[in-house]
């Protein structure tokens, strides 16, 4: 984006105010950052900043990218609010490409709020959620897929999702899409040129070459589209429901995997009534673990409701952890659960079979269980003796990673907006290919190719409309 373009766009979005926000999460630590960005950033900072002798300083004379110790005062009554380190970053080498002043403050959230307040009183406007990043995008500093990675990074719940966000932030997706667009533009030009300049005797692209080149792009778009599941797992977690008859140890397993005594565990059957849900990172994969009530004949309204809830979660699960206990023979409930498992498999839900309580005397007809489930082996554990847990965790993460498209270049998509755009790009390519096969005139193909180009451009923000931009940036936290 050129300097002039970005000025124009900024005017259109009302981006000429100087904005301020607390940019550290609340309650994290005693230190916090308050950030100013915009044309009046230095002038506003000037009003509230004093050096350690309480004298006014000429901030505009500070060299860019330098830090200065001093005090923040309320200019109305010269009251000291906090001591702070002022960091000056003059445009254009800043995140927003505007003048940025950061105050590294020492006080807690209350004094951060007061710092923000005096900045507002001195002429800044409070930033909207995501506005700093939105400005960075509008000034061409980052592209849209990078901006989204910033949000995902803020919300990252595991190391692997953090890494994926980072990779994306580094523009992996942008690079890939830009390359694909480049290839399409080339084809587009080669098709159009002989049509636009018929007297130039430009050689027409042969059908075979055109087909091959389109197929290559289509393949890449399809692969990228297939990374959505993985991207979503990284950012949202795998819905994993623990089921089994009462007392098999579901809540014990839930707690063990969470490494926290979250659910109530008792020797009484029917302990868990409501469903419990927690996020946990197991070997780099994020699971949304759900503990459910044990399967039994409902004897009252509460039990009926808990069975209903269990059913709802079961239907939505990506992965089911089905538990049996080796210490008792197969019961009617166990058989019902076997049926549920077989139905779940038909719905393409993944199932892991767990046999618990291997520290106790074995009464379970194991051969029969495996036969009914049509499996060769299961994961055998004892939650009491803490045996087999590592193996189970291994199985959990393998079950998720199996069959997933994990791109070697780390480029993934992880939201529906990106997927929708890719689907449209894919469709355009498929239509164009069909056209080539049916020997349609080239100028008709270019309509489909243009659709693909536009769709791809939407991912990086190269043909973005205002509505989409606002939708994305409203997902941000204030101060980022
Ligand atoms: N010996 C033995 N006892 C276990 C093991 N795992 C769980 N238990 C015990 O089994 C009982 C039931 O455990 P829970 O985790 O509450 O079982 P649950 O499946 O959640 O039960 P409900 O919520 O009632 O359906 C408790 O007394 C646990 O201590 C195990 O591996 N070995
Ligand atoms: Mg329970």
Task: Give the helix/strand layout.
Blueprint: H1 3-12, E1 19-22, E2 32-37, H2 41-48, E3 49-50, E4 66-74, E5 79-89, E6 100-105, H3 109-121, E7 125-126, H4 131-138, H5 144-154, H6 159-169, H7 172-196, H8 207-226, H9 228-236, E8 238-244, H10 250-258, E9 276-282, E10 285-291, H11 301-316, E11 319-325, H12 332-346, E12 350-356, H13 366-373, E13 379-380, H14 389-401, H15 416-437, H16 442-460, H17 466-473
Parallel strand pairs: 1-7, 8-10, 8-11, 11-12, 12-13
Antiparallel strand pairs: 1-2, 2-6, 3-4, 4-5, 5-6, 9-10
What is the global morphology? flat
CATH architecture of the largest domain: 2-Layer Sandwich
CATH topology of the largest domain: Gyrase A, domain 2
> What number of domains?
3
How far apart, in Å, are the first and last alpha carbons? 22 Å
Describe this structure in words.
By secondary structure, the protein is of the alpha/beta class. The protein has three domains: 3-141, Gyrase A, domain 2; 168-227 and 409-461, Four Helix Bundle (Hemerythrin (Met), subunit A), CATH 1.20.120.430; 244-285 and 301-391, Rossmann fold. The chain is built from 17 helices and 13 strands. It has helices at residues 3-12, 41-48, 109-121, 131-138, 144-154, 159-169, 172-196, 207-226, 228-236, 250-258, 301-316, 332-346, 366-373, 389-401, 416-437, 442-460, 466-473, and strands at 19-22, 32-37, 49-50, 66-74, 79-89, 100-105, 125-126, 238-244, 276-282, 285-291, 319-325, 350-356, 379-380. It has a seven-stranded mixed sheet. Helix 7 runs antiparallel to helix 16 (442-460) and helix 15 (416-437) runs antiparallel to helix 16. The longest helix is centred in the middle third of the chain and has 25 residues, at 172-196. The model is unreliable at 1-14 (pLDDT under 50). The site of magnesium ion has 5 residues, from helix 10.
């Amino acid at each position: 984006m050129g300097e002039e373009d970005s000025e124009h766009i900024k005017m259109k979005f009302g981006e000429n105010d100087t904005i301020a926000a607390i940019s550290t999460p609340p309650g994290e630590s005693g230190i916090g950052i308050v950030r100013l960005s915009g044309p009046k950033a230095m002038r506003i900072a000037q009003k509230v900043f004093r050096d350690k002798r309480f004298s006014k300083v000429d901030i505009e004379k500070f060299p860019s990218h330098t830090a200065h110790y001093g005090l923040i005062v309320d200019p109305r009554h010269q009251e000291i609010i906090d001591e702070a380190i002022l960091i000056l970053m003059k445009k254009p080498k800043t995140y927003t490409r505007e003048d940025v002043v950061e105050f590294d403050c020492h006080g807690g959230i209350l004094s951060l709020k007061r710092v923000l307040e005096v900045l507002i009183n001195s002429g800044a406007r409070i930033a909207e959620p995501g506005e700093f990043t939105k400005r960075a995008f509008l000034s061409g500093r980052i592209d849209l897929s990078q901006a989204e990675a910033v949000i995902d990074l803020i919300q990252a719940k595991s190391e692997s999702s953090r890494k994926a966000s980072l990779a994306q932030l580094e523009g992996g997706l942008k690079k890939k899409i830009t390359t694909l667009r480049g290839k399409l533009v080339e084809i587009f030009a080669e098709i159009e040129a002989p049509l636009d300049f018929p007297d130039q005797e430009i050689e027409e692209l042969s059908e075979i070459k055109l087909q091959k080149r389109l197929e290559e792009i289509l393949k890449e778009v399809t692969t990228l589209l297939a990374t959505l599941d993985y991207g979503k797992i990284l950012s949202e977690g795998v819905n994993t429901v623990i089921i089994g008859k009462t007392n098999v140890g579901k809540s014990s397993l839930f707690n063990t995997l969470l490494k926290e005594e979250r659910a109530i565990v008792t020797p009484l059957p029917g302990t868990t009534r409501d469903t419990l849900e927690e996020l946990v990172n197991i070997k780099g994969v994020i699971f949304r673990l759900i503990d459910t009530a044990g399967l039994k004949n409902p004897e009252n309204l509460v039990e009926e409701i808990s069975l209903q809830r269990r059913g709802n979660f079961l239907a939505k699960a990506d992965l089911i952890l089905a538990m049996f206990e080796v210490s008792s023979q197969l019961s009617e409930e166990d058989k019902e659960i076997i049926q549920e498992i077989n139905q779940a498999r038909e719905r393409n839900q993944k199932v892991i079979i767990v046999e618990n309580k291997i520290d106790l005397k074995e009464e379970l007809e194991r051969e029969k269980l495996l036969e009914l489930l049509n499996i060769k082996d299961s994961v055998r554990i004892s939650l009491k003796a803490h045996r087999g847990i590592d193996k189970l965790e291994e199985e959990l993460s393998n079950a998720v990673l199996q069959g997933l498209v994990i791109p070697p270049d780390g480029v993934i998509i992880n939201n529906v907006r990106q997927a929708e755009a890719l689907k449209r790009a894919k469709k355009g390519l498929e239509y164009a290919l069909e056209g080539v096969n049916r020997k349609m005139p080239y100028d008709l193909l270019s309509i489909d190719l243009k659709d693909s180009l536009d769709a791809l451009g939407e991912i990086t923000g190269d043909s973005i409309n205002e509505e989409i931009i606002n939708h994305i940036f409203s997902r941000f936290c204030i101060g980022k």
